[in-house]
Design brief:
Arc Repressor Mutant, subunit A; 4-stranded antiparallel beta sheet; Four Helix Bundle (Hemerythrin (Met), subunit A); globular; disordered N terminus; 338 residues; alpha+beta
Length: 338
């Protein structure tokens, strides 16, 4: 329920598909740009988390993203200061933030993206084990909530149960990603050909509209990019009458996870690569609208070949990065000796 003292929700708050970190980032950016947070005013991580009803991790990521854009300056021990004329001082007044709840419901959904992001970062380095008890304690939720969350992640192929019954996220390697994209390259063009006779023109036009909005936007947007990825690779392909192909492709959906975190320094890829991917999607959808199935399937095949390279860029980024500290509910898994 909205507070009576707050105007109608901004698009950043209303967009429930974006991550908590990204919605907090957008909301703070809008406040900085329209003067609700004045130059020289300070922001604290705990203050942002409390005002927006989120945990400190997405608040921290949002504030650091604003620092990277030059909108805030970080001062150790004194928070973040809004940039402006005269040079920001760490002794400025604390900014006033209205209580705008941006967290999603149900509870498992509220914490899903934060846990998913933490997993995706660390499985690029090592396999990790999830401690369900610590997960519940960390987010102050019941074990029922954590079971719902873990079941969802299991269904997405992100985690598995090991021989001892513990939840495990296996390390993602370049070889694994190449194997998944090879599988996609073999199956998705065929699924697209089989889908085309069954996809209504209205659905294709709606997909094209989403692509146009994403391409014309001033900044690459995680939620918009995630949407266009799913529009084509899941939505349109869902019309394929061969359900065995679709079930096989579900095992490749793991690769879509990082597209929800374009602003993250490890999980994102350069903006120009995102623009190129959107342009390739548009070409495929335009061919589908012309009912050029063969051309669309060939364009999809070529798109997947370069998409593989884009995904693998993340391994180049982490190769230059030291291993990160684990949150309390994650720990390195023992090496697989099988």
């Amino acid at each position: 329920m909205k507070s009576a003292s707050i105007p109608d929700p901004t698009p950043e708050v209303a967009d429930r598909t974006a991550s908590l970190q990204e919605r907090a980032y957008r909301l703070l950016k809008a406040m900085l740009e329209d003067g609700r947070i004045a130059p020289g005013e300070r922001l604290l991580e705990a203050q942002v988390a409390k005002a927006f009803g989120i945990s400190r991790s997405p608040a921290r990521h949002a504030l650091r993203s604003l620092c990277a854009q030059g909108l805030l300056d970080e001062h150790d021990g004194k928070g973040y200061v809004a940039a402006g004329q005269g040079g920001p001082s760490p002794d400025g007044p604390l900014a006033t933030l209205d209580a705008i709840r941006i967290q999603a419901t149900p509870q498992w959904e509220r914490i899903y993206k934060e846990v998913e992001q933490e997993l995706f970062i660390r499985v690029l380095f090592d396999a990790v084990r999830i401690n369900e008890k610590q997960l519940a304690l960390h987010f102050d939720v019941s074990r029922t909530v954590t079971r719902d969350l873990l079941a969802r992640m299991h269904g997405m192929g992100l985690i598995v149960k090991d021989d001892t019954g513990h939840w495990l996220a296996r390390r993602i390697t370049p070889e694994h990603i190449r194997d998944l994209y090879e599988m996609r390259g073999l199956l998705e063009p065929q699924a697209l050909l089989k889908s085309l006779p069954h996809v209504p023109d209205a659905r294709l036009r709606a997909v094209r509209d989403n692509l146009t909005l994403a391409l014309e936007g001033p900044v690459a947007d995680s939620a918009a990019f995630d949407q266009v990825e799913r529009d084509l690779h899941i939505g349109i392909l869902s019309f394929c009458p061969n359900k065995e192909i679709l079930r096989a492709l579900e095992r490749t959906h793991l690769v879509f996870g990082p597209t929800r975190y374009l602003f993250h320094p490890f999980l994102g890829v350069p903006v120009e690569m995102i623009q190129a991917a959107l342009t390739e999607h548009l070409d495929i959808v335009d061919r589908l609208l012309r009912r050029d199935g063969g051309g669309a399937a060939q364009a999809l095949h070529e798109h997947l070949k370069v998409a593989d390279d884009r995904w693998l860029k993340r391994f180049e980024i982490i190769a230059r990065t030291t291993r990160l500290q684990f949150p309390p509910y994650l720990a390195p898994a023992a090496p697989d000796r099988s």
